[in-house]
Amino acid sequence: MFTLDKVVPWGRSFEEYTAMFLLAEAEMAGRILGCGDGPAGFNAEATRRGARVVSCDPLYAFSNADIEARITATYEQVIDQTRQNQKEFVWEAITSVDELGKVRMAAMNAFLADYPAGLMEGRYVNAALPSLPFPTGDFDLALCSHLLFLYSQQLDEEFHHASLLELCRVAKEVRVFPLLALGGARSPYLEGSVEMLRTAGHNVSIQRVNYEFQRGACEMLRIQRADG
């Protein structure tokens, strides 16, 4: 079973973000928060296309060289785990472990090239859930990729609930992908989180998306804020 001891820096591409989160072109016109983006290439490419994106992650406390070193250290661990657990993944859009390595490194290299300028421009912010340094309603859309629910063993239910409420505070709409934990089981916190959010008055749905790499991970949680 694919497993990691802690949250690791591992980035996905702009194209993967648009598929994972069903991002329509019109939605890219709003102000977007990528929460827990790590070394993803989404901000770099979205900014190049004229979008207004802010990414936040505690990784951004580190220098470009430090992050590159952490990516290098993580790369072999993740690729080795993937190679040992290939049955947990869908090898269609990405056809092999070697291709996966190339795709992920291309996304992370796009991040590394953009990071120094993005840091100076305020597009990369050193911040972490469940407490974000942004005003209430600062974003039209918040995206959380491969953090909440995926790391259910490392991050407890209280953390999930506090983080989801915080994302709802700073954004009119929140989308979280995937809904499975590492290893492929549905997160044990999903049902309780949906109930908690609905009790708080938010409109919550689970939607199928145009993306599946981790087998069975083809749905996102969509939350529309009560006063959004």
TrEMBL record:
One of its GO terms (molecular function) is methyltransferase activity. Gene3D superfamilies: Vaccinia Virus protein VP39. InterPro entries: SAM-dependent_MTases_sf. One of its GO terms (biological process) is methylation. The keyword Transferase applies. Keywords: Methyltransferase, Transferase. This is SAM-dependent methyltransferase. It comes from Cyanobium gracile UHCC 0139.
